[in-house]
Write a structure and sequence with these properties.
two-stranded antiparallel ribbon; mainly alpha; 10 helices
Length: 247
């Protein structure tokens, strides 16, 4: 749903193909580590799989330490990232260079993981978070770029759990309504200095008085035109659109 032509930030995601069009990307280390750990659980006596999982975790933790090292200059960070790339090459290069055909069972999973890590390393999507500048939110908070997409998943977990446990929003109309509400609330969480029920109500009342929301202000600040259609129309069309009505 993000537009690669206008989204100028870093996309932190798994390696799904839908994110391939974003050049400035950070692939989620949690997903990569889980793949390595899964191999050790399937074959606990396989020393190679244990070594890959252990080394990957060590490399990720080392990258996190480098990111937090305030003594480094831009050149120093780049040298550290180059060294991290070399560690990935040392770990995965032997399997990658063999250009193995599809294998059987966990051996193929190991091959695919090595190839994925090498591809992401060469595309510079493994250690983007190490050198990226901290992100300043509209509410004034500054947060470092993370190496996993856990924050996004945690943000979505509450509404997803509420939907599942309440057995609600089984229709497109209900799902669309809740999606709009949750999107506005979570966007306001990073817009408002204090996120409380009172501050949210005050902000929405301000929109009514001004005839324009803070999101319209943000579009103007970024010199982006207001959207002609809701991006939800492609996945959750309104009842009128779904029935062909113009009402």
């Amino acid at each position: 749903m993000l537009d690669p032509a206008t989204f100028a930030r870093i996309v932190i995601s798994d390696d799904a193909v839908v994110y391939a069009s974003f050049a400035n990307s950070q692939k989620c280390w949690a997903h990569l580590l889980r793949k390595a750990v899964k191999l050790t659980l399937l074959e606990p006596d396989n020393e190679e799989y244990r070594h890959v999982a252990d080394r990957l975790l060590e490399i990720y933790r080392e990258a996190c330490r480098v990111q937090r090292d305030g003594r480094l200059s831009d050149g120093g960070w780049k040298q550290k990232v180059a060294a991290l790339d070399d560690e990935i090459l040392e770990l995965c290069g032997p399997v990658w260079c063999e250009e193995l055909p599809p294998l059987e069972g966990t051996a193929d999973d190991n091959r695919l993981l090595a190839n994925e890590l090498m591809r992401l390393m060469l595309q510079q999507q493994l250690f983007t978070f190490v050198t990226a500048a901290p992100v300043e939110q509209p509410n004034g908070e500054t947060t470092p770029v993370e190496g996993t997409n856990n924050e996004a998943e945690r943000t979505l977990r509450g509404p997803a759990n509420a939907r599942d446990t309440g057995h609600a929003n089984k229709t497109k109309r209900g799902a669309r309504r809740l999606t709009v509400i949750e999107s506005v609330l979570e966007s306001l969480r990073v817009q408002l200095a204090t996120f409380t029920l009172s501050s949210v109500i005050d902000e929405v009342c301000r929109w009514c008085d001004r005839g324009q929301s803070c999101f319209a202000d943000l579009l103007a600040e970024l010199s982006l035109p207001p959207p002609k259609h809701s991006i939800l129309d492609g996945v959750l069309p309104s009842t009128a659109e779904a029935s062909g009505s113009s009402g």
